[in-house]
Design a protein that fits this description.
Blueprint: E1 4-7, E2 22-26, E3 36-40, E4 47-55, E5 59-65, E6 68-74, E7 80-88
Antiparallel strand pairs: 1-2, 2-7, 3-4, 3-7, 4-5, 5-6
């Protein structure tokens, strides 16, 4: 898969990204805590943009900024984590 861009929707990551901002994603980079990722759902065409805090065999521990919350998402349900490498605010 090659790099791609998406438009940010919603304000759950407002401290980092704003609604309407274009996010550039490289799905080929290794997954490591400390970066923002696009998480893709395995069953539906859903995504989440979140900051990755920790990785376990079963979960991603992620953070959103608005409201500030950390929570676990199942890796079996959200298997793809694709790193955001930049953004553009029009």
């Amino acid at each position: 898969m090659t790099s791609y861009a998406i438009d940010m929707r919603g304000d759950s990551m407002r401290e980092r990204y704003r609604p309407g901002e274009t996010l550039y994603v490289n799905p080929e980079l290794p997954v490591r805590p400390g970066y923002e990722y696009v998480f893709r759902n395995s069953d539906k065409p859903l995504i989440q943009v979140r900051h990755l805090v920790e990785i376990t065999d079963e979960h991603w521990l992620v953070r959103q900024w608005n409201p500030l919350t950390e929570y676990k998402i199942l890796r079996a349900e959200w298997p793809a984590a694709e790193r955001i490498i930049g953004s553009y605010t029009p």
